[in-house]
């Protein structure tokens, strides 16, 4: 297998130049993101470059003696290059940024990107700023805005149109204590938002989407409409998510079940989908001759399908990583006719993507995608070799187990830091969902191909529907096993770094079997113990007290209900100030009243719409005060 042959070249440094190049580049991007160097700091780069040029004129003996210093100079150069790339992508420092020249009352010329997306009470689109008009004089400007408009304006705001807007942009705000949506938008180049009402805009020029955008949109529309026709809701939403990454038709409860079992990657377009497409294309094109013309034909067809699928699915970070990697492998195999080091290919893909968009380094999908591939390359072979299975079917099963365990090793620390939870039954969930989803993907492609033949298409659609039903039911069943999800795990950046240091020491010890590696492992364990002891003694005293889902803060009592309530009803109700319903608990308001007396019921945004409507109706019937976060926005409690 690919993973078994990759580790043999781990110690061949000369064959992995991009591994040494991408690390300082990435460190420079991260440093600029958090430290925000001024433009004067980048004046050091010409001086460092001058040092590297002086090095070229040294005598050969000096060059050899000081060769390590040259490596340091090159790494420092790449560090500053990474910082400068992020600085140039930051719209705050762009000389034509609309934020620098906009004055209240100016007209803004916008170009609408993409079709309008329907929200509960409005429509939204992304728009590019083309220019500003101040007292009749035009000046160029750049930037991106989120445009929200009344639903009645849907027909007048068409994809690709240039519109003249007289409305004041406002900064993007975050909900209290929630996801940093403002930072997320900034990494997409979006720096503000507009709210349009009737009369705030007028058509300036009708352009329409480009032929490529229009073709991709029609392709996506064809897939979703075909699935709706032959599979039916809600399973059609799952088929669309599995094949083309269109997740608007997915039920929130289903998404939560997949997240709780650690297999959310199944319904997110990732490298697995590109790997299936790549292997299928190679199999279908195996009849082409292995001469120069045949190899060029294979390469062009594979590249065309890979990047067409990448663009169709939205070009997420994980898909871009896989597309660049498979493109490099295809070019090396069929055009250059040479084998490439897979670690170098992985590093080269990261290098190219960061040059294209430095903000990708902060993208969770980008991080987890590369960590998963690195983890598989480093650990799959050793895990698989630890157990020999003579039965062929058992060996295939063990390969899946080894692959799943290997992918978890490097991704788990980051997942604990980001999500503070761990799905304990991820292994059986992966063993069930991954094969079923693979079959569903192939059958969905077949369904699209034979959609003109209605009788056959209906039969395939029924088969896909029941496979999806079986997959969802199995995932939901595993998600309700005892201890299926460990929540509230406290994991901070020092802990993550120490975990990776321990893993690195183990890899070095097993790969090179150096005696000093044992000492490094001991030092790492001692460091972890010291960090833990310091964390205990230096941690400030808590301002609130929590027991399971009960929170007491400055005299206010809050109960978080995220699962079904118990069967035994207490003799005396527990008095609290707030009840928070989140994560789709299987309960109703009358059942909650049997356990608690409360002042306000808060319905969180992470619940399914039908449950939210059910609870709202019950509260109205019982004349209870409630707050619906999806409808009313964030609810702030002033303690």
Automatic annotation (TrEMBL):
It is a multi-pass membrane protein. Residues 242-511 form the ComEC/Rec2-related protein domain. It comes from the Bacteria. InterPro entries: ComEC_N, Competence_DNA_uptake, DUF4131. The keyword Transcription regulation does not apply. This is Competence protein ComEC. Keywords: Cell membrane, Membrane, Transmembrane, Transmembrane helix. Residues 38-199 form the DUF4131 domain. GO terms for cellular component: plasma membrane. It comes from Chitinophaga dinghuensis. It is found in: Cell membrane. It holds the Pfam family DUF4131. The chain crosses the membrane at residues 21-48, 68-88, 262-287, 299-320, 341-361, 367-385, 397-419, 425-448, 455-478, 484-508, 520-538.
């Amino acid at each position: 297998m690919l993973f078994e042959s990759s580790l043999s070249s781990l110690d061949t440094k000369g064959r992995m130049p991009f591994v040494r190049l991408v690390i300082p580049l990435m460190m420079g991007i991260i440093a600029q993101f958090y430290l925000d160097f001024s433009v004067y700091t980048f004046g050091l780069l010409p001086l460092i470059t001058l040092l590297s040029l002086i090095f070229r004129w040294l005598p050969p003996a000096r060059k050899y003696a000081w060769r390590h210093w040259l490596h340091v100079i090159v790494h420092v150069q790449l560090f500053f290059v990474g910082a400068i790339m992020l600085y140039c992508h930051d719209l705050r420092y762009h000389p034509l940024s609309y934020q620098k020249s906009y004055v209240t009352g100016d007209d803004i010329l916008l170009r609408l990107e993409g079709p309008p997306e329907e929200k509960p009470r409005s429509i939204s689109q992304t728009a590019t700023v083309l220019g500003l008009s101040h007292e009749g004089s035009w000046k160029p400007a750049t930037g991106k805005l989120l445009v929200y408009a009344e639903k009645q304006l849907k027909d007048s705001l068409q994809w690709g149109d240039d519109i003249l807007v007289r409305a004041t942009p406002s900064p993007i705000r975050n909900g209290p204590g929630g996801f940093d949506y403002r930072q997320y938008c900034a990494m997409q180049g979006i720096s503000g938002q507009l709210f349009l009402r009737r009369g705030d805009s007028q058509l300036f020029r009708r352009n329409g989407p480009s032929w490529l955008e229009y073709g991709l949109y029609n392709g996506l529309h064809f897939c979703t409409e075909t699935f709706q026709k032959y599979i039916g809701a809600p399973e059609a939403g799952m088929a669309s998510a599995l094949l083309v990454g269109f997740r608007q038709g997915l039920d929130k409860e289903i998404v939560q079940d997949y997240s709780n079992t650690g297999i959310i990657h199944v319904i997110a377009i990732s490298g697995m989908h590109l790997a299936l497409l790549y292997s299928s294309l190679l199999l279908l094109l195996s009849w082409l001759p292995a001469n120069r013309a045949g190899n060029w034909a294979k390469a062009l067809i594979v590249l065309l399908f890979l990047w067409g699928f990448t663009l169709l699915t939205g070009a997420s970070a994980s898909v871009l990583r896989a597309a660049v990697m498979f493109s490099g492998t295809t070019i090396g195999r069929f055009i250059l006719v040479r084998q490439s080091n897979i670690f170098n290919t992985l590093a080269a893909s990261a290098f190219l993507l960061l040059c294209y968009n430095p903000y990708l380094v902060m993208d969770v999908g980008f991080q987890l995608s590369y960590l998963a591939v690195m983890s598989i390359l480093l650990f799959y072979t050793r895990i698989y070799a630890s157990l020999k299975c003579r039965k062929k079917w058992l060996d295939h099963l063990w390969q899946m187990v080894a692959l799943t365990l290997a992918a978890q090793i490097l991704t788990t620390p980051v997942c604990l830091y980001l999500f503070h939870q761990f799905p304990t039954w991820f292994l059986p969930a992966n063993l069930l969902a991954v094969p079923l989803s693979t079959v569903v993907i192939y059958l969905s492609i077949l369904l699209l191909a034979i959609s003109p033949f209605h009788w056959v298409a209906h039969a395939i659609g029924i088969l896909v529907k029941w496979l999806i039903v079986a997959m969802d039911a199995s995932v939901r069943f595993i998600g309700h096993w005892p201890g299926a999800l460990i929540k509230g795990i406290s994991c901070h950046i020092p802990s993550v770094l120490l975990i990776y240091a321990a893993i690195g020491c183990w890899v070095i010890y097993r790969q090179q079997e150096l005696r000093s590696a044992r000492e490094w492992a001991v030092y790492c364990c001692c460091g972890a113990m010291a960090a833990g002891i310091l964390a205990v003694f230096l941690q400030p005293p808590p301002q609130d007290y929590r027991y399971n889902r009960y929170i007491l803060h400055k005299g206010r009592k809050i109960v978080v209900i995220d699962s079904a309530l118990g069967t035994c009803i207490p003799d005396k109700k527990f008095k609290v100030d707030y009840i928070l319903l989140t994560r789709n608990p299987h309960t109703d308001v009358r059942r909650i009243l049997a356990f608690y007396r409360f002042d306000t019921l808060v319905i969180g945004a992470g619940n399914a719409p039908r449950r939210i409507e059910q609870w709202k109706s019950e509260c109205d019937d019982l004349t209870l005060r409630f707050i619906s976060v999806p409808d009313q926005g964030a609810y702030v409690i002033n303690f």
